[in-house]
User: Which sequence fits this backbone?
């Protein structure tokens, strides 16, 4: 199928208007942001909705990048291309630019949004791995006001999120801590493809170069992007070294839950999860050390 089933189209004029439409139209309605995940699913008839509520007119309310000293706030309608191009974001969190360079192609990056990526809840979504790694907080607004959900609780399973009926993801917040470094690694079958496996890492160092905290997020190796607290526990308080990265890699390889599919076998994906974790950690530490000097 190349043509979606017929649907009605509404263009939201404000976030409150979108919430009102969602409330009124119920589960027969869906928001459309970049449309790069929703529309292919509708064309393939994997999803059918009677109403699409277009939020692309809400750039003033939802399309922004606010870089603060202690926190970065990104509106849900911010596009892949904007995340790729922001030098300020790359300075604070180089993991974003690493990831955006290997997400899809310019056409998708010109329209696809951060909010759409997280709400699609595809287990292979690279930005979900980035947000998990950076310990993001998701701001969800609905008829009863606003609530904040940590990234670790945002995905309830493949294609399921904490965003409830009548609600909209409005903003994603990222804590900024001193002496941090981050990186993203991905293996795909061809340029612009979804990940066979991808891995994000972030580390924070003390004045003596010891790891005070670390986080790793993997994509395409479990029902949803996988945060690995055991990796963080193994790294905290330790001096960075190749041996330490090896130990973290082996925890990541054992701790993920890949399936065999057209992209690779369980064994191959576990191998990649370990190898990419190691590379991302090594690069994160190098970047954190560069910032210190
Ligand atoms: C050819 C191709 C290659 C791709 N390759 C990659 C890749 O390599 N890596 C990768 O990570 N991604 C990839 N993607 C996915 C791409 O990143 C999409 O843009 C992204 O997944 C969805 O963003 P969107 O804005 O297009 O969302 P949409 O398709 O508009 O929406 C997706 C879902 O999120 C909901 N939604 C959207 N915004 C909100 C909101 N603010 N609040 C609540 N619900 C909302 C919609 O209702 C819908 O259910 C690829 C896509 C294509 C078409």
Assistant:
């Amino acid at each position: 199928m190349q043509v979606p089933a017929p649907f009605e189209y509404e263009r939201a004029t404000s976030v409150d208007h979108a919430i009102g439409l969602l409330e009124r139209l119920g589960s027969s309605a869906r928001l459309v942001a970049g449309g790069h995940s929703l529309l292919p699913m509708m064309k393939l008839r994997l999803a059918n909705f009677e109403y699409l509520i277009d939020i692309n007119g809400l750039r003033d309310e939802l399309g922004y990048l606010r870089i603060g000293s202690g926190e970065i706030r990104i509106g849900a309608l911010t596009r892949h291309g904007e995340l790729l191009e922001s030098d300020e974001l790359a300075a604070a969190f180089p993991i974003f630019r690493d990831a955006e360079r290997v997400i899809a192609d310019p056409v998708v990056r010109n329209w696809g949004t951060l909010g759409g990526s997280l709400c699609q809840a595809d287990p292979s979504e690279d930005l979900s791995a980035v947000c998990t790694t950076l310990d993001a907080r998701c701001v969800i607004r609905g008829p009863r006001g606003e609530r904040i959900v940590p990234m670790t609780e945002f995905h309830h399973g493949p294609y399921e999120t904490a965003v409830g009926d009548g609600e909209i993801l409005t903003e994603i917040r990222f804590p900024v801590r001193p002496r941090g470094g981050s990186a993203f690694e991905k293996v795909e079958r061809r340029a612009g493809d979804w990940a066979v496996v991808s891995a994000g890492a972030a580390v924070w160092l003390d004045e003596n170069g010891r790891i005070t905290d670390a986080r790793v997020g993997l994509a395409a190796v479990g029902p949803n992007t996988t945060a690995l607290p055991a990796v963080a526990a193994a790294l905290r308080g330790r001096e960075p070294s190749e041996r330490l990265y090896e130990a973290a890699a082996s925890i990541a390889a054992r701790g993920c839950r890949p399936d065999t599919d057209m992209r690779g076998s369980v064994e191959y994906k576990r191998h990649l999860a370990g190898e990419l974790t190691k590379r991302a950690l090594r690069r994160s530490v190098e970047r954190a050390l560069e910032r210190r000097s």
User: Anything to note?
Assistant: The mean pLDDT is 96. DSSP finds 13 helices and 14 strands in the chain. The first helix runs from residue 15 to 25.
